Amino acid sequence: MSDHSEHHIVPLKVYFLVFSALMILLFVTVGVAMVNLGPFNIYVAMSIAIIKAVLVVLYFMHVRYSTRLTMVVAAAGFIWLVFLLGITILDYTSRSWIPGSYQ
User: Fold this and answer.
1) pLDDT (0 to 100) of residue 1
2) What is the pLDDT of residue 60?
3) SS3 annotation, the chain
4) Domain match, 17 and 60 both
5) Are 54 and 18 in the same domain?
6) How many angstroms separate the CA atoms of 99 and 79, rounded?
7) 32 and 51, same domain (yes or no)
8) Cβ burial 53-62 (10 Å sphere, 16+ → b, else e)
9) Which of 24, 39, 49, 59 could form a disulfide with 18 if both were Cys (CB 3.0 to 4.6 A apart)?
10) Is residue 34 located within the same domain as residue 72?
11) pTM (2 decimals)?
């Protein structure tokens, strides 16, 4: 069994580049929120949010330089989040099927 005790040293330049990308995506999010894209607003906003979340998880939480097990656990967390959001959306959209229910 290999020893995973050694740490990967990430240069500060990488952190500053990721931080810069997050700030740019923040301004893009604000800009897109001010543009009326109709029903596509939510898709664009969620896409940008997912990209930001992936950057944070990969670099600031050091998943990129971790073991495969850590990557599997992080991926399982995202899959669980998608599952929970999916059943929430299904519940919300199916409420109009029952007469007299609240929307």
Assistant:
1) 47
2) 92
3) CCCCCCCCCCCHHHHHHHHHHHHHHHHHHHHHHCCCCHHHHHHHHHHHHHHHHHHHHHHHCCCCCCCHHHHHHHHHHHHHHHHHHHHHHHHHHHHHHCCCCCC
4) yes
5) yes
6) 33
7) yes
8) eebebbbeee
9) 59
10) no
11) 0.73
- What's the token pair of residue 11? 């240069």
CA distance 12 to 40: 36
Give me the amino acid identity at 60.
Answer: F
| Structural domain of 77 | 67-97
Query: Average of pLDDT values for 74-85?
Result: 93
Tell me the one-letter amino acid at 101.
Answer: S
pLDDT band at 100 (very low <50, low <70, confident <90, very high): low
